[in-house]
Amino acid sequence: MTPMSPRTIGVTELVLRDGHQSLLATRMALEDMVGACEDIDQAGYWSVECWGGATYDACIRFLNEDPWARLRTFRELMPNSRLQMLLRGQNLLGYRHYDDMVVDKFVEKSAENGMDVFRVFDALNDPRNMARSMAAVKKVGKHAQGTICYTISPLHTVEGYVKLAGQLIDMGAESICLKDMAALLQPQPAYDIVKGIKDRWGDIHVAVHCHATSGVTFISLMKAIEAGADSVDTSISSMSLGPGHNPTESLVAALEGTAYTTDLKMDRLLKIRDHFAQVRPRYAAFESSVLVDSTILTSQIPGGMLTNLESQLKAQGAGDKLADVMAEIPRVKADAGYPPLVTPTSQIVGTQAVFNVLMGPYKRMSAEFADLMLGYYGETIGPRNPEVIAIAQELVHKEPITVRPADLMKPEWDHLKVEANQLPGADGSDEDVLTYAMFPQVAPGFFATRDEGPKSVAMTEAQLAAAQEGQAAGTPGITGPVKYQVSLGGRSHTVQVEPV
Questions:
Q1: pLDDT of residue 402
Q2: What tens digit of pLDDT does each residue of 366-377 get?
Q3: Three-class SS string for 197-221?
Q4: Distance of CA 483 to CAs 155, 205, 208, 244, 442, Å?
Q5: By C-alpha distance, which of 53, 71, 77, 50 is closest to 113?
């Protein structure tokens, strides 16, 4: 009897987007990525995630870099690869809902500039908030990947996730991603959900994405593969683990001798690894200090959210209240109908928990939390607390809604275009209008300084050498001048600080 050949598992490489977003606060400059692009392009990945998420914001806010130019560069340097992005549904890459025409324009321009795979998600898992962007992706002939944000609550079940996958398939999804942004996905649920989707919906491509923070998710990836997952997300080992992702080379090694394999070329992977091993130390100032945090499995609070809470409390002189806030978050989450904690809901729920601890339950409420309670972000899996809804109504003087939030929006493309094109430095392109639409506070400063070119926030080689020399001598710190990017009044300035 001839043995069956191993089933090939696709791999999505995350180093150019979520890898550095999770480990280095999205600060990596394009100049530190281009040297690895040829090897990434030739390594045999199913796709290369390189855009979207927080990268667009970081490009214009911190790096004086045009995100559209970054995408075009990746397209040119990786002609053989499927380029992939993370898109927040009706929120695009910003933090509010946008009019349908703005969504259509964004998808059209992203495809035109080189994007192939659009991983579309919504923070509330509300399919209505994904429908327009999914349709726009289909219209331009690109790959629409419908995304399920994984979370844990009394109302979230395997059957519920399988049903949501079906809704996304009916919407035109060519593949389904099970996205675990908080490292909550344990091995058995990973197996059960993937198998459930495969058994119910047949031959649909299923991708699995999870962070490494809790220390259990490498096993979850393996169990998902056993259940029938077609591809998994990893990040090259020199940019992996901690709040980042599981290492690409480790996956290749773990599949040796099993019924599964990858198409990845190890010689290329090692070159990619070595490239980013050289780059990473120059971004030490932005490194996360988290290695493994298993408390996430009980608190369900993503590492980035925890960091934000700590800084909020310290700013209020209440650093000793963190445990109280951690205990309050599940109550706020329940009151809000158990939304997954992912941008922007993680920030909204976390901030409200801080207010509740410092001032009393719902004595103060952010406008964003009020909108969440009133349905302006979309529908939640569970009912929202009617008493808290009443407080929200009184605060913002709006009625609760049950329709798709974007249905209430007025057309905005034409006036956004007029406003954007009046800004000094704007080039009249639709891409610039989209930059302004998503980041109206940041875009004017970026347009004004764009001609000055990208401004990396990494240490120079000389600064890195001086820092390492100082550490070796027992005097940690940098002995040479250090450059900082400072934003004042929406404009970016470079400041050089000399040591005393």
A1: 96
A2: 999 999 999 999
A3: HHHHHCCCEEEEEEECCCCCHHHHH
A4: 49, 46, 39, 27, 21
A5: 71
Distance CA 145, CA 339 (A): 21
Give every CB contact of residue 220 below 8 A, 6+ residues apart in sequence: 180, 185, 186, 187, 189, 190, 208, 210
- 58 CB-near residues (< 8 Å, 6+ apart): 21, 25, 26, 27
pLDDT digits (tens, 9 = 90+) for 418-450: 999 999 999 999 999 999 999 999 999 999 999
Q: What are the tens digits of pLDDT across the range 264-311?
A: 999 999 999 999 999 999 999 988 877 888 888 877 776 667 767 777
Q: What is the pLDDT of residues 50-69, one digit of tens each?
A: 999 999 999 999 999 999 99
HEC profile of 146-164: EEEECCCCCCCCHHHHHHH
Strand 10-13 relative to strand 83-87: parallel, antiparallel, unpaired? unpaired
User: Tens digit of pLDDT for each residue in 256-266?
Assistant: 999 999 989 99
What letter represents residue 12's amino acid?
T
Count Cβ atoms below 10 Å from residue 66 Cβ, excluding itself: 23
How far from 16 is each of 29, 226, 249, 314, CA to CA, in Å?
10, 27, 16, 32
What does the block give as tokens for 82? 């499927």
Structure tokens at 71: 């995408």
Tokens 């990596």 -> residue:
28
Q: What is the DSSP string of 49-84?
A: EEEETTHHHHHHHHS---HHHHHHHHHHH-TTS-EE
Q: Any residues with CB less than 8 A from the CB of 422 and at least 6 apart, and which?
A: none
Q: Quote the CA–CA distance of 15 and 21 in Å, as a whole number.
A: 9
* 462, 480 contact by CB (below 8 A): yes
Read off the pTM.
Answer: 0.91
Q: Is the pLDDT of residue 207 over 90?
A: yes
Q: Is the pLDDT of residue 481 over 70?
A: no
Residue 497's SS3 state is strand
Q: Measuring CA to CA, how many Å separate 458 from each of 28, 284, 485?
A: 8, 8, 11
| Residue spans of beta strands (DSSP E) within 127-278 | 143-149, 175-180, 205-210, 231-234, 260-261
Identify the CA nearest to 267 among candidates 40, 431, 478. Answer: 40
Quote the pLDDT of residue 344: 85
